[in-house]
Amino acid sequence: MSGYLAPKIGVAGCVLMLALVQSAVVSAQEASEQDQGATASVPLEQITVEGGQEVDVRDGAADSAATISIGQDDLERSNPLSLEDVFEGEATVQVGGGTAVSQKLYVNGIEDQNLAVTIDGARQNQRIFHHATTNLFDPALFKSVDVYPGPAPADAGPGALGGAIALETVDASDLLDDNDSLGAFATASYGTNGDPFVTGAALYGASGGFDGLGYVRYGEGDNYEDGDGREVLGTAVDLLSFLGKGGFESTDGHRFEASGERVIDDANRPFRANIGQIIGGRPVPLTRGYEVDRETYTARYEQTKAQGLFDPELVLTYTESEVNVPDPFGSEGSAGGWNGKAQNTFRFGRHSVVAGVDFYREDANYEDPETPELTETIENVGLFAQARVEPLEQLALSFGLRSDWQDFEGVDGTDERTSGISGNVFAEYAVTDNVSVQGGYSNVFGGITTAEPYIFNPDWEYSDLDPVRAENISGDVVFNYRGFTASAGLFRTDFDDARNASFGGGPFIPIDFRSEGFRLSAGYSWSDGFVRATFTDADVTLDGSSSDSFSLEDFAIPVGQTIGLEAAHRVDTNFTFGASLEAALEYDDSEGDDLEGEILLAYDDYVVVDVYADMVLPKHQNVSLRLDVENLFDADYSTRATYGQEFESVIPLREPGRSIVLSAKIEF
What we know:
6% of the residues lie in helices and 54% in strands. By secondary structure, it is mostly beta strands. A hairpin with a 7-residue loop joins strand 2 and strand 3 (104-107).
């Protein structure tokens, strides 16, 4: 994979790492010779990212009350090397799979391909192969991540069946210091488990209304060992990612922007990428090559200084994901296409209405040397409007409608037209200065989704296709007092006529499933840090009964009770330390049920602790070093969101055991 580029980046990273370590030693020696005196107390400040003078109408809106928002300061603190790192301490969101190629996101137990997922406004559709990831992301340059768990507003996009996830990448303006027109940084990290070495570099600048950013990151390494010291085959790091952005903004706020983002993983993985091994199955190699490639290109126009009734936004994007398995079948699968929207925000004082039209065309394709190209296609046009109002000082309301028209074409040319309306309503009411209640409801039309290309069958006969529909409801009570916060809430999501399919079973096998449960959170923040804990109990059922990860594949996963804990403290302007905990209690709801002659096991409990320390060098403020100890107690486990743990015949993918990771960053 990009053999000409990898050695150059790797050598540059080695030089950078050596230089930074040497600089750290020199700075430490100089510091030890000086009387440091008392250390001033400096708070862990929240970073607010704004473009121009525009104010996001969702800030403080009722539909954002239950949103899980991860900002730039949170991402800088967690220094994410994988998707799992992004959601440290958040029990509502689970990531399973062990490697980037197999990782999938679950919100309240619902898989991400049943959510409206966007990157910089570009709709993502990654349903290709059930053994591979649905979202191959590089989180290193994420600016923010917003998760709508359950009900989502109409302007979150089509297909927000179980909620939505909005990912944003940084712009040059987010990285440039005040009064600077040009900047750059380089990063490098090394871990002791599997020897992963990851290097990256970015160059960015702004002048005369123009701005631009270019970024590349490359990582390579060997298979890691699990907490019991066993090598986990097919887990070597081999990742290459790119991000490019360029824009122009006039003095009166007209902004035009274009961006491109691509992530590639090309290495040997387990034969079934999300499973360690199947015992007693048909003879297959332990590993085989997977080529996974995801790319997104976006063009955008917006008015950053808009006020009043005219605040337009135009977005046109192209996205594509590929999962190719050269051996033994020569299989090639892909999904993606064009999508876009045109909307306007009408502001009336504290109130606003967002209205517009969006569209997408998605093609899902499969072919191999023995099979001609098979394709399913969806064309969808939607009209939407979302109102956000504050009728009373202590009351915020949000409500909206969508209407979608869809044209679906099957692999045999079958054409099916369908349409439907989606609605939502949210409310947040401040009972006192310290207590508020909030709730949301949505009923969502999802149309006919594409099946995964790797199970396409040229002999499929399409009949009785029904659009999927989902109903979401949630409610929370929130308490805030002098840095202390606590909340408790309930949620429930029901899917009707979700499209399941199999190569031999046909193109449409409708299923109904539900996720319901409750969540708790508590936290305390002080001038120099914070501590927060989250707890989620999600019960996922299929057709009214407890189920397993095989029967729910592509839709959800049994979650049970999960716990997240995160804490951080800043000693001074140059030194911060922190820790996070991920835990799951034993889950035995499906234990003993017979699935095709196989007895199901309980999911094991586990506790995993990560710790870190981050230091800016006193004599070189543009240089920072970070030490992470991941899986501090060397737990031997698979995350709750990892496939197949309940089957005696499955060896699930195990997570890495203890690893000491040294990272360095230098800014210019």
